[in-house]
Amino acid sequence: MKSYYFSGYNIGVRLIDDFLARNPTVGRCNDFRETADILSKQGFKTYLGIAPSITNWSPAGDEFSLLLDGNPLTEFVELPEGPGQKLSYNQIICGAIRGALEMVQLEVECRFVQDQLKGDNTTELRVKFLKKLVDALPVGED
């Protein structure tokens, strides 16, 4: 299961460069709400052809949910019976979000709350801001 997440992370690390090249007007976000908006309306739209709804903001404004109406990654997936039901194909999305945001100095946690592939009514993922990353030179280099 973690391999999907780490595959997604590696995709996100590279995808952010492509996204910024395709969208030269996108600059540094002023706050996490703006980040969520760009992620939903531009990122998902560009690469998956969907625009998830942003809902359930935490009171502190550091966590939100993305509701996916359709998910092209799981459109033709059927989970096998038995141990295969524990597979979580959608973890690739969480990994990509974390990887992409880490490259723009935002450390986030991303997890699925509900998954239609597992029988839930909707697909919902939570994104939580953890901290702003600071570039640092290795010790001894100036």
Automatic annotation (TrEMBL):
One of its GO terms (cellular component) is endoplasmic reticulum. The keyword Endoplasmic reticulum applies. It is found in: Endoplasmic reticulum; Golgi apparatus, cis-Golgi network. SUPFAM superfamilies: Ligand-binding domain in the NO signalling and Golgi transport. GO terms for biological process: Golgi vesicle transport. Gene3D superfamilies: Trafficking protein particle complex subunit 3. Its main location: endoplasmic reticulum. Keywords: Endoplasmic reticulum, ER-Golgi transport, Golgi apparatus, Transport. InterPro entries: Bet3, NO_sig/Golgi_transp_ligand-bd, TRAPP_component. Homodimer. Belongs to the TRAPP small subunits family. BET3 subfamily. May play a role in vesicular transport from endoplasmic reticulum to Golgi. This is Trafficking protein particle complex subunit. It comes from Rotaria socialis.
